[in-house]
Write a structure and sequence with these properties.
The chain has 251 residues and is mainly alpha-helical. Among the domains are: 53-86 and 95-137, Serine Threonine Protein Phosphatase 5, Tetratricopeptide repeat; 161-242, Ankyrin repeat-containing domain (Serine Threonine Protein Phosphatase 5, Tetratricopeptide repeat), CATH 1.25.40.20. The protein is 42% helix and 2% strand. It is built from eleven helices and two strands. The chain has a two-stranded antiparallel sheet. The longest helix has 23 residues, at 24-46.
């Protein structure tokens, strides 16, 4: 039987039969486009939370300042001017957190030893005690990466020399441990002296382990005789570097 192209109705008023349109392919295509273009945009603009680990990621660093956020120790003309323009356009984002470790721009300037950019950020209202996802403040970051010029700047602006948190040790620990190796040891020795002169507690203990800064100076790949000698000369207790006894274990 042939299909009818007209529905039955009064003579002269017959109406064409409605042909259903398959909407599923269009919906699927729209969903795919949303995923392809929308998800990266949302991640880059608003950040994300890893559903498996629970770790948080923050938006990508703005394009105006991205050049020095990757290899910031290679200073290029125009970087300070670009930062000033960004600050003028986004004054309320001065303490916004960016990238995988949710760092402020002051953290980034501290990591690369950019005291010139750090001054601009602080003058614009950057929080010198802001914390990143690792609970580090800019002073921790500058000490860990061996950036004495930024450490001096932060200390003169009132940064807490004994700052610590539940996930991080003190800036003196950061100077002693560095990146877990011998890199920037000369600069980190200078930083340790600056921190001690500013009143850092040489026997301040790390949350959880209870170790002092002397632990990194005498153990692991970060061990360094000059750092250990400096800490001991300032009254470091050798017991602060020793593994505590296990309760109920052999003595």
């Amino acid at each position: 039987m042939m299909s009818r192209s007209w529905e039955w109705g009064p003579p002269g008023l017959e109406t064409p039969a409605t042909v259903p349109v398959a909407k599923s392919p269009f919906i699927a295509a729209a969903f795919c486009l949303a995923v392809i273009f929308g998800v990266p945009w949302c991640r880059n603009t608003f950040g994300y939370v890893d559903m498996y680990t629970g770790n948080r990621g923050c938006p990508v660093i703005p394009s105006e300042v991205r050049s020095w956020s990757v290899v910031g120790d290679m200073r290029k003309p125009g970087e300070a001017a670009n930062l000033q323009k960004w600050i003028a356009r986004h004054p309320r984002q001065i303490n916004k957190q960016f990238d995988a470790f949710c760092e402020t721009l002051l953290h980034v300037a501290a990591r690369w030893g950019r005291e010139d950019l750090a001054k601009l950020l602080i003058a614009a209202g950057a929080d010198i005690e802001a914390r990143n996802e690792l609970d580090e403040r800019p002073l921790h970051v500058a000490a860990k990466y061996g950036r004495p010029t930024v450490v001096r700047l932060l200390l003169t602006r009132g940064a807490d020399v004994g700052a610590s948190g539940w996930r991080v040790h003190t800036p003196l620990h950061a100077a002693s441990c560095g990146l877990g190796d011998q890199s920037t040891i000369g600069a980190r020795l200078e930083i340790a002296k600056l921190l001690l002169a500013a009143g850092a507690d040489v026997n301040g203990r790390e949350h959880g382990s209870g170790f002092t800064a002397l632990r990194c100076a005498t153990t692991y790949e970060s061990r360094n005789p000059a750092m250990a000698e400096l800490l001991l000369a300032h009254g470091a207790d050798p017991r602060g570097a020793v593994e505590p006894p296990i309760p109920g274990g052999p003595r």
